[in-house]
UniProtKB/TrEMBL annotation:
Gene3D superfamilies registered for this protein in UniProt: LURP1-related
Matching SUPFAM superfamilies: Tubby C-terminal domain-like
Protein name: Protein LURP-one-related 14-like
A Pfam family the protein falls into: LOR
Top-level taxonomic group: Eukaryota
InterPro entries in the cross-refs: LOR, LOR_sf, Tubby-like_C
Length: 206
């Protein structure tokens, strides 16, 4: 929890490491996210730092039942796997480390906050949080998505990432199924977690 009731995570606040310490930086990060539609049911995300270095890739199904997304590093090593659980009014995802499906490798679950809403929002529960039925106990909350031109992630009432999504839109890229946008990740916040949430929130809109 940020000190002095700040409304935004800042330098000096505790590290939020969920996927791994290697994804946490002591300074704000502006990430460029490039999304490309590969087919009717598949798309791909690539995440770059401000210098243009590839940090993460996410492949998988953009539509369908029991969707699966895989996040890898630039070398192709699997960091985590996102799996949608069935088809319900309120979507649910489970995220495991690596390619695992085992309970002991569960990192967190993501539950859609409301079945019907103009803006997609989700509640995030870490693996050790068993009281997933009470939305007041969620560890993180995310809302927005690409089509909303906004994406924000909160820990309690503190903003830890998002601060809006800035599109780089051209009709040429749109016709080719390409979309570029930027996401700001606050200091000491796990950017792999933030990107995973962005992808799942975006998928929930489809």
């Amino acid at each position: 929890m940020p000190k002095n009731k700040k409304t935004e995570w800042q330098v000096g606040d505790p590290t939020i490491s969920i996927v791994g310490d290697q994804f946490c930086n002591p300074y704000p990060m502006d990430l460029m996210v490039k999304r490309k539609v590969q087919s009717f049911s598949k798309d791909n995300y690539q995440v770059f730092d401000p210098s243009g270095n590839l940090l993460l890739q996410i492949d998988g199904q953009a539509w369908g039942i029991n969707r699966k997304r895989v996040m890898t590093d630039p070398a192709g090593f699997t960091i985590l796997t996102m799996r949608q659980k069935g088809m319900t009014l309120k979507n649910k995802w489970e995220v495991h480390g690596g390619e695992s499906k085992e309970r002991e490798d569960l990192l967190f679950t993501v539950h859609q906050s409301m079945a019907v809403s103009l803006k997609t929002s989700v509640d995030v529960f870490l693996a050790e949080n068993n009281n997933v039925m009470n939305s007041n106990t969620c560890d993180f909350h995310a809302s927005g998505g690409y089509s909303n031109i906004s994406f924000k992630v909160f820990k309690s009432d503190a903003l830890i990432a998002g601060v809006g999504v800035t599109h780089k839109f051209t009709w040429g890229s749109f016709c080719k199924g390409k979309c570029n946008f930027r996401v700001r990740v606050n200091p000491e916040v796990d950017y792999a977690l933030i990107i995973a949430l962005l992808v799942m929130v975006d998928d929930n809109e489809n």
